[in-house]
């Protein structure tokens, strides 16, 4: 696939813990550079979930962001994120991701475009879920993966974002740190800034021949504030990269 894939800070939703409301958290994160949101909320009836998808796409559209829907039903869009258990084969959509936890699950990937791997660290959203991969385990999966990986689970601080990028992750998937934040704008700014800095340094080192580009990862697009990493339509359709750039479900 030649389109833009999820990278940077990817926000996973959980309206039950979102302080001040889900749309407020998403809007605050998008205002500070988040361009990818994964809509979970699987307990909602389809009609309510589809209406929520419309609202979140509208928030993302102005920033050129993309909404990815957890599960095989894209809810009127064309980007989905599937659980490790299925379905197989994946639906034929422009953007398909999958949750993975180990090398065996990565080996089952076929036409998926990216995957999350988790948990990198212990997570408050799923206490006791693990064991955690830690940075070394993340790096090992990056090297084994046929697709770019997002690090998921317990990512809460700029230092953790940096460690994930240095291990080869194309980005980090964040739920609790943003959903529960008293100030989601400030938290998103800290995390996205850490990604930009780490990705820029990694790319510079790669170009200077001091480090290897991970076999499975893309060279990250490094956004400036307010720039887009994704489709301008805001409806989840990946667009070709320009020649000059570039939680378990």
Structure overview:
- The chain is α/β, with parallel strands linked by helices.
- The protein has a single domain (8-207), classed as Aldolase class I (TIM Barrel).
- The chain has helices spanning 22-31, 46-61, 103-107, 134-144, 158-166, 176-179, 184-207; strands at 8-12, 36-39, 66-70, 79-82, 95-100, 114-117, 149-152, 171-174.
- It has an eight-stranded parallel beta barrel with strand order 1-2-3-4-5-6-7-8, surrounded by five helices.
- The chain starts with 7 loop residues before the first strand and ends in a 42-residue tail after the last helix.
Short description:
With 249 residues, this protein is an alpha/beta fold. The chain has one domain (8-207): Aldolase class I (TIM Barrel, Alpha-Beta Barrel), CATH 3.20.20.70.
Task: Identify the notable features of this structure and list them briefly.
TIM Barrel; 7 helices; 32% helix
Q: Specify the number of helices.
A: 7
What average pLDDT do the residues reach?
86
Helix amount: 25-40%
Distance between the termini: 23 Å
Number of domains: 1
C-alpha Rg (nearest Å): 16 Å
- Net shape: globular
CATH-defined superfamily: Aldolase class I
Number of strands: 8
The largest sheet has its strands arranged as 1-2-3-4-5-6-7-8
Strand content: 5-15%
For the report, how would you describe the main beta sheet?
Answer: 8 strands, parallel, barrel
Query: Unreliable segments (pLDDT under 50, ≥5 consecutive)?
Result: 211-249
Class inferred from helices and paired strands: alpha/beta
- What is the CATH C-level name? Alpha Beta
For this structure, the quaternary state is single chain
The CATH topology is given as TIM Barrel
Strand-and-helix sequence, N→C? EHEHEEEHEHEHEHH
> From the 3D coordinates, which CATH architecture would you assign?
Alpha-Beta Barrel
């Amino acid at each position: 696939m030649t389109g833009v894939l999820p990278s940077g800070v990817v926000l996973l939703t959980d309206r039950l813990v979102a302080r001040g409301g889900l749309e407020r958290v998403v809007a605050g994160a998008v205002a500070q550079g988040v361009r990818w949101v994964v809509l979970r909320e699987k307990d909602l009836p389809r009609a309510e979930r589809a209406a929520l998808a419309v609202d979140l796409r509208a928030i993302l559209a102005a920033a050129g962001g993309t909404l990815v829907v957890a599960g095989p039903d894209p809810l009127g869009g064309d980007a989905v994120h599937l659980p490790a258990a299925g379905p197989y084969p994946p639906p034929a959509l422009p953007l398909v991701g999958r949750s993975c936890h180990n090398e065996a699950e990565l080996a089952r990937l076929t036409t998926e475009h990216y995957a999350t791997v988790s948990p990198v660290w212990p997570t408050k959203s799923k206490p006791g879920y693990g064991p955690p991969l830690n940075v070394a385990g993340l790096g090992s999966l990056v090297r084994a993966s046929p697709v770019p990986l997002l690090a998921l689970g317990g990512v809460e601080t700029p230092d953790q974002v940096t460690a994930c990028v240095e291990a080869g992750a194309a980005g980090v998937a964040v739920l609790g740190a943003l959903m529960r934040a008293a100030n989601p704008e400030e938290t998103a700014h800290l995390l996205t800034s850490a990604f930009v800095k780490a990705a820029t340094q990694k790319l510079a080192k790669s170009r200077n021949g001091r480090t290897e580009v991970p076999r499975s990862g893309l060279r990250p697009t490094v956004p400036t504030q307010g720039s887009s990493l994704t489709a301008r339509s805001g409806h989840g359709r990946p667009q070709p990269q320009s020649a000059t750039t570039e939680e378990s479900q």
